[in-house]
Amino acid sequence: MHELILHHYPNSPFAEKARLMLGFKQLSWRSVSIPPVMPKPDLTALTGGYRRTPVLQVGADIYCDTALIARRLEAEKATPPLYPEGLEFIVSGFAAWADRELFQHAVSLAFQDEALAQRFAGLPAEALQGFLADRAALFSGGTLSRLPLVQARQQWPTLMARLQEQLGREIGDFLFGEASLADFAVAHPLWFLCAVPATAGLVDAYPAVSAWLGRVRGFGHGSHDELPAPEAIEIARAATPAPLPEGEGLALEGFAPGQRVLVAATDYGVDPVHGELVHAGVEALILRREDPRAGVVHVHLPRLGYRIEAA
């Protein structure tokens, strides 16, 4: 049984989503610190080019995107569930909306000048310029464009009012009664805004939302310790990818197992992963690839929100 290894950095909103899910599941994990900006040679040795944060490693299996990481954690430990019975579609659909729409608004608000100045206080000006240049590259070539700040400010009260209304109608402490993936998907953009005074008021102005966020953060991050990146790569090299899911998988029109393909996100961070398609499931595509440092790995990428092409 391989350990769970999370490749992340402290200030990443999506990494906070993954850390909270690990805490919710009360799982133990190893923490590999990665740079917040490119290049990320240790990470891409495992992923084959995927650069977004975080990435979950389990031996020689590499899971990209928190939507897929959530499903891997659910397989690791079924209770408490991220997808409560009878709410699976509602929870996954709501989480997808939050990861895109709510996050897009939060990023626009968090990148206003005053907030950036507070976030990068004490660091050289070159650090801020490097970060902004990296994020411009991250959002280049995809379908998701930066939401204008004026529009984000105008629409934010509507989003928060809807969230507050939902919390007021549920019997229970969370969005749909019991905690689920939906809570963690909504929490991480708000956590990002709360990190600096310039934007914290955008959450604090809504008492029910602020109290709910405190409850979600109360799950903590689980038990973890640090792991150097070279050791994580060596763990992958020494391991064998887990057996492929049983059955023939779900047909993928125009593609067949064993074919060389590239898979890339369509919204942002569109750097492609090249490899041999070994499985196409309902939720995930699995590529086999070989790296000089990491050896043979299976890279798991979501089916939704990603494109696949012949290499």
From TrEMBL:
| Protein name per its UniProtKB record | Glutathione S-transferase family protein
Q: Which residues form the GST N-terminal domain?
A: 2-81
Lineage of producing organism: Bacteria, Pseudomonadati, Pseudomonadota, Gammaproteobacteria, Pseudomonadales
Matching entries from CDD domains are given as: GST_C_family, GST_N_family
Mention any Pfam family matching this sequence. GST_N_3
At the top level, the lineage of the source is Bacteria
